[in-house]
Structures are given as structure tokens and as C-alpha cells.
């Protein structure tokens, strides 16, 4: 069971690192596991040039990763060795690898930090808000994958242990589910027959039912439509064209959604909607 657990989680983490590198073009992506003694260990990586950071142990509160664990918030620095918001016990490892800018985001499952997702560049380039938001979104999707893995293991380890549960979908397959969810919602919007439209909306709900929890904020159908488009990376203009409404109307729906979910950006709104099971 432990071997399979590690394998399932490692596959989800590897898929997240690869997807993040592809989406952002950032050369280095890493994952550090939080150990029982509250230290981090970098256990997976993509794009490192040297072994300096491979399997590195990071003490509690040290560097970018340690600050992430302490604050439970994303942390980014444009010049690691000169940054004044972090400690510098591990500077030599960063210098040996040649990293300049680094950002990191916590991976939290069931309110407990499981690890830290990192991105880094070797050149003096500042990581913008878009990159941080993409790292955050990837972290949220990884959290969902790890939570699903844990749920399946609980089923397998309980009275239903003899039931075949099937394998966990990888990152690419989750993206297909999300794309299908959005397309179904857009198709439902174009139907004039109310009964058929409601049937499609039920199908949309079924796509998120396995991870649905009690919602603290009730989103309207149109607000979910807008969020579905945003989750696929559509701009306001693209979402407006897809939905057959004006771009200002899309903005209005987004403002309403962000207010209900307590989000400050469109990407935070998507993440919040996924956490409450409103989006796949």
C-alpha cells in the first residue's frame, strides 16, 4: 500500500512539474516534500543543470521554501542571494545551480501542507504575477490530484477494499475533463429548449460531483460559465464571444464571483471554485 501510495503521488507531482514547465516556459520546476520534522526535502525536479539542489534538505523557516511553510503563502524573490525577506543558509546551493529568481507555493491537502512547488530561472529575470498565478493554479490542481489519491486509498483500505477503483487520472486527463465541462456549459447556453438545457446542466454538475463539498458561496449558472472559460485561459473578450455576451458583462460576472469567493484575481477565483467543487 505504501509503495503504491508513493508511486501514485509521485506520478501526480511529476505531471504537475512537467505541465508547469510547459505552460510557463520557466526552465526549472521542483517539488519539495514536507517531512515529519517540518523540514523540506526536494524530491522531484525538472530542468536542473547541476546536482546541487537534488534531494536538498531545507530546515524549517530557511530560504524561500521555509518561508512558504511558515506563512502558508506563495513567496517569490527576484534576486535570491540579495533578498531581504528570506534567510540565506542555502545560498551556496542556489549559487552552484546558478538560479537567480525563485518563486514557491504551498501544496495543501486537507488543511495540511504536503510540500512546496518551486519555479526558478537562471537569468536575472523577474517572475511576473502571471507566472505566480500559474504556479498557484498548478499547485491547486496538484492538491486535488493528491486528495483524490488519498480518497481512493481510504476506499481500498476499508471495507470496500475488494472493489476495483481504477487508476487516478493524470494531469492531461484532468485538463480534458475541464475542457469538456466548459464545452458542455457553452452548448447548454445555446439551447432554446429548456428541458434539454437542464439535462446538460445536470451533466455538468455530475462532472464535479466526486469532489463536491458544501458550498459556502452560491454561484449562478452564468457566473460558473464565465469561470469555466477563465479556467481554460480565455480572456474576457474570448469568453464574451464564446458566451454570446459583451466583454463588460463578463467583467461584471467576474467581479461578482470574486466578491462571493473572496478572490483578488480571476485565477484565485478559479482555484476557489475548484476547492468548493463548483468546477472540475
TrEMBL record:
CDD domains: LuxR_C_like. Residues 212-277 form the HTH luxR-type domain. SMART domains: GAF, HTH_LUXR. Keywords: DNA-binding, Transcription, Transcription regulation. One of its GO terms (biological process) is regulation of DNA-templated transcription. The keyword Transcription applies. Pfam families: GAF, GerE. One of its GO terms (molecular function) is DNA binding. This is Helix-turn-helix transcriptional regulator.
Amino acid at each position: 500500500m505504501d509503495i503504491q501510495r508513493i508511486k501514485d503521488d509521485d506520478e501526480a507531482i511529476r505531471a504537475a512539474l512537467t505541465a508547469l514547465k510547459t505552460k510557463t516556459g520557466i526552465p526549472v520546476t521542483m517539488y519539495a516534500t514536507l517531512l515529519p520534522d517540518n523540514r523540506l526535502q526536494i524530491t522531484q525536479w525538472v530542468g536542473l543543470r547541476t546536482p546541487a539542489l537534488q534531494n536538498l534538505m531545507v530546515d524549517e523557516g530557511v530560504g524561500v521554501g521555509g518561508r512558504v511553510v511558515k506563512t502558508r503563502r506563495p513567496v517569490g524573490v527576484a534576486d535570491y542571494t540579495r533578498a531581504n525577506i528570506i534567510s540565506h543558509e542555502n545560498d551556496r546551493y542556489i549559487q552552484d545551480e546558478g538560479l537567480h529568481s525563485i518563486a514557491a507555493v504551498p501544496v495543501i491537502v486537507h488543511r495540511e501542507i504536503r510540500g512546496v512547488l518551486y519555479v526558478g530561472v537562471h537569468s536575472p529575470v523577474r517572475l511576473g504575477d502571471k507566472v505566480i498565478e500559474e504556479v498557484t493554479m498548478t499547485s491547486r490542481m496538484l492538491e486535488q490530484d493528491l486528495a483524490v489519491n488519498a480518497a481512493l486509498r481510504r476506499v481500498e483500505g476499508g471495507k470496500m477494499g475488494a472493489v476495483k477503483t481504477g487508476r487516478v487520472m493524470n494531469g492531461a486527463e484532468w485538463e480534458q475533463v475541464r475542457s469538456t465541462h466548459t464545452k458542455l456549459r457553452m452548448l447548454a447556453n445555446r439551447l432554446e429548449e429548456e428541458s434539454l438545457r437542464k439535462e446538460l446542466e445536470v451533466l455538468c454538475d455530475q462532472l464535479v460531483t466526486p469532489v463536491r463539498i458544501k458550498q459556502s458561496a452560491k454561484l449562478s449558472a452564468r457566473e460558473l460559465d464565465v469561470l469555466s472559460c477563465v479556467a481554460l485561459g480565455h480572456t474576457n473578450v474570448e469568453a464574451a464571444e464564446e458566451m454570446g455576451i459583451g466583454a463588460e458583462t463578463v467583467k461584471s460576472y467576474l467581479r461578482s464571483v470574486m466578491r462571493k469567493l473572496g478572490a483578488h484575481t480571476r485565477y484565485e477565483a478559479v482555484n476557489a471554485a475548484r476547492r468548493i467543487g463548483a468546477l472540475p
